[in-house]
Design brief:
- By secondary structure, this protein is an all-beta fold.
- It has a single domain, classed as TolB, C-terminal domain (Neuraminidase, 6 Propeller).
- The protein is 0% helix and 50% strand.
- It contains no helices and 26 strands.
- Strand 10 and strand 11 form a beta hairpin.
């Protein structure tokens, strides 16, 4: 595995990364409340304003962009023509506290974490009709999340307790009791996580860089990332073996060639 190389700089607190269907990289700039796409020569191009603090972003199979907008406490849908609309903001009359990260389930539902300190955090799903369902509650500030390769469970960062949980999917799509996958004893809580196709988990940790764990939760590598605040992760490249890592303090994105391709994210079906 090679060392990370600088891919782009000059961003404002990048907090979310995603590739669209044309393999173009998009960045959520949390501090500026906007989404930008990266042009062919590494130049950031304006795409959409969210008006708050955008964090996790993900494209569906129709190339629509969904945004976890923590500052405005809702999910946004940004269509291919750049129209911005609120997709969901509540579950059974209760407003979201502040969506943080999101991913798609294999059936096309959007799954996201909702901020909450001292066991006040939740995990929700939102279906294609924008109806929200609470999948889990009582979590201490859940942040990053990713599906297992077989879609049988959800891996979630519980930042308030500095650990990563596994929550198995139960019958009906709800989540079962969490189990601790990795408990970090020191350092800042993780921010984001992704799998490669061998089941290795890549984890950004402020102050520590990039941590790699095997399928049993044993840490196998620690890779320094310039700067103290690595945030979002996304796989890309022709062979899907290039890991892009956002670093908030310097406003940079780094690129790292990995031993194995990344796990392909679920993105639908959502087309109608």
């Amino acid at each position: 595995m090679l060392s990370p190389e600088l891919y782009i700089q000059g961003l404002s607190m990048p907090g979310g990364l995603a590739f669209d269907a044309d393999e173009q990289l998009f960045v959520a700039e949390t501090q500026q409340g906007r989404i930008r796409k990266i042009g062919p020569h590494g130049k950031p191009i304006p795409f959409a304003a969210t008006g708050g603090k955008p964090l996790g972003i993900a494209f569906d199979d129709s190339n629509d962009l969904f945004v976890a907008e923590k500052g405005r406490r809702h999910l946004l849908l940004i269509s291919a023509d750049e129209a911005v609309e609120v997709y969901a903001h509540q579950c059974k009359g209760k407003r979201f506290n502040g969506p943080q990260d999101l991913c798609f389930g294999p059936a096309g539902d959007l799954i996201f974490t909702d901020v909450g300190e001292q066991a006040g955090g939740s995990i929700y799903s939102v279906d294609i009709d924008a109806e929200a369902t609470q999948l889990a509650a009582g979590l201490a500030n859940p942040t990053g999340l990713v599906l297992s390769q077989d879609a049988s469970s959800l891996y979630v960062i519980e930042a308030g307790l500095n650990r990563i949980l596994i929550l198995p999917f139960a019958e009906g799509g709800t989540l079962g009791a969490p189990q601790v996958f990795i408990q970090f004893e020191e350092g800042h809580p993780p921010r984001a996580l992704l799998f490669d196709d061998k089941g290795r988990l890549y984890i950004t940790r402020p102050g520590a860089g990039l941590t790699i764990a095997d399928p049993d939760g044993q840490i196998t590598a620690q890779i320094p990332i310039p700067g103290d605040e690595p945030t979002a992760l996304v796989f890309g490249g022709p062979d899907f073996d290039e890991l892009y890592i956002a670093e908030a303090s310097s406003g940079s994105i780094y690129r790292l060639r990995t031993e194995s391709p990344g796990q392909r994210p679920f993105a639908g079906p959502r087309s109608i």
